[in-house]
Design a protein that fits this description.
heterodimer; A: mainly beta; four-stranded antiparallel beta sheet; B: mainly beta; 11 strands
């Protein structure tokens, strides 16, 4: 249980194009999903918190107009990198919060999407 | 000072050794502690989750939390080459956001 998928797993695009990444919770409903970026040999950097049916909450320094997040259903959140540039090349990982109803809710991560902008 | 400190390594040990991975934290509001394993070019996988001081064991893995010292550990017994990965500690205080350590790169040599 608690499987999270991401699509695509890898994308290469030209500078200036937009790229959409999907994050799905396959066997549970996720009221909250998180988007992270990870550079080589570094830890995960939280970009934004996505709540179903409401606007995403972005971390300081993350451009909301550049990284568009939509959480249209309890099993799907999308991240669109608009007008991508080479400096946006990174490993993007989503996670979904499994609401256990207990003390806290653990996050389950997707396999990640490697974005390369030429 | 970072909220969570974790030695990035790299750490290299022979197969069969006991591995000890550690994190310290400064925020006394943290109550929930997790260890994730991340293989290269993959998403993190939840290994252990605990919310109280003391030890929690799962197979070859033991998570230890000492809230008084703000120190958590992950022990791996009888380490295997397949345990080679980056191990990330993470924690939160009941809010939604997890705070991650930098991750420790571990290599188990056959």
């Amino acid at each position: 249980g608690a499987v999270v998928s991401q699509h695509p797993s890898r994308v290469i695009c030209k500078s200036g194009t937009s790229v959409k990444i999907e994050c799905r919770s396959l066997d549970f409903q996720a009221t909250t999903m998180f988007w992270y970026r990870q550079f080589p040999k570094q830890s995960l950097m939280l970009m934004a918190t996505s709540n179903e049916g409401s606007k995403a909450t972005y971390e300081q320094g993350v451009e909301k107009d550049k990284f568009l997040i939509n959480h249209a259903s309890l099993t799907l959140s999308t991240l669109t990198v608009t007008s991508a540039h080479p400096e946006d090349s990174s490993f993007y990982i989503c996670s979904a919060r499994l609401a256990s109803g207990g003390f806290t809710d653990t996050q389950y991560f997707g396999p990640g999407t490697r974005l390369t902008v030429l | 000072q970072k909220e969570v400190e974790q030695d990035p390594g790299p750490l290299s040990v022979p197969e069969g050794a006991i591995v000890s991975l550690n994190c310290t934290y400064s925020n006394s509001a943290f109550q929930y502690f997790m260890w994730y394993r991340q293989y290269s070019r993959k998403g993190p996988e939840l290994l252990m989750y605990t919310y109280s001081s003391g030890n929690k064991e799962d197979g070859r893995f033991t998570a230890q939390v000492d809230k008084s010292s703000k120190y958590i550990s992950l022990f791996i017994r009888d380490s295997q080459p397949s345990d080679s990965a980056t191990y990330l500690c993470a924690m939160n205080g009941g809010a939604q956001k997890l705070v991650f350590g930098q991750g420790t790169r571990l290599t188990i040599n056959p």
